[in-house]
Amino acid sequence: MDRFDALSIFIAVCESQGFAPAARKLGISASVATRAVAGLEEKLNVRLLQRTTRSLRLTEAGQTYLERARRIMADLDEADQTAQSHNAEPAGLLSISAPVLFGRMHVVPALRGYMEKYPKVTVDLRLSDGLVNLVEEGFDLAVRIGHLPDSQLMAVKVGQTKKVVVAAPSYLDRVGRPDHPSDLEKMDIISFSQTGSNPDWRFENGGREIRPRLSMKLNTNNADAAIAFAKAGGGATRILCYQSYEAMVTGELEQILTPYAPSDIPVQLVYPSARMMSVKVRSFIDFVQQTSIWNFVLPTIQCL
User: Fold this and answer.
1) Using one digit for the tens of pLDDT, what is the confidence trace for 246-272?
2) Which domain holds residue 109?
3) Is 174 exposed, middle or buried, given 0-12, 13-18 or 19+ CB atoms closer than 10 A?
4) What is the pLDDT of residues 52-62, one digit of tens each?
């Protein structure tokens, strides 16, 4: 008998708690099920089940073997489904969460190309600068910018960006351009965060971390609001490079303290860590990677 067939029978016997019910479930005779398990025990030279006239009980070795057998069969099923998915056309509803400005600027253009390639897919795009729970809120995947904490999510890096400090030239002409992060302690600070606490801006210099003590002038949980207030001369704000790029190109905002910019931040697509990724999720990740549609993070948005 095929080894995988024997494993399937052994799992069914354990789950059904008997040879006869397992045989009925699998559409085989009870004697075939009995011989399959006996064959495994003979090959392994170990007893997997303690049998009585009324019940079956897993031995310690049998319990360990059952756990491994289930894992092996799950891996086999996943391999089969993955191979079959290459011939399947993506279809159905793809639900995506993304930050507001990033979604408007970059996810929407990506979706247009993706949906032209896969016309059977419809998309529900929800934009929010807060973190959503993918499992509880039913999202297939999300765009996350930053290093991810340990979680049950899988992540695929699709680019990188960085945090920059910007202010309106008119404001800098009035208060002076800072030469060191500590100079920010004397400036009006616009904080873009979800918490409303005083900003914790970290800078780097020769591998040494610098954390000036800043006083918040304005806090907002919306990047557009922080940018608008900074463009109006309200102070300095620290946001992600792509968020301020348009205003820097037009000269409405000026990047400051570039020698102290921290390390790059990854842009990632995350999805629940189910064993089998759906065809529509895989196709969207592949589209982003293969078409290089989000390479903007490197060559186009070139912050110092």
Assistant:
1) 899 999 999 999 899 888 888 899 998
2) 92-158+269-297
3) exposed
4) 777 788 999 99
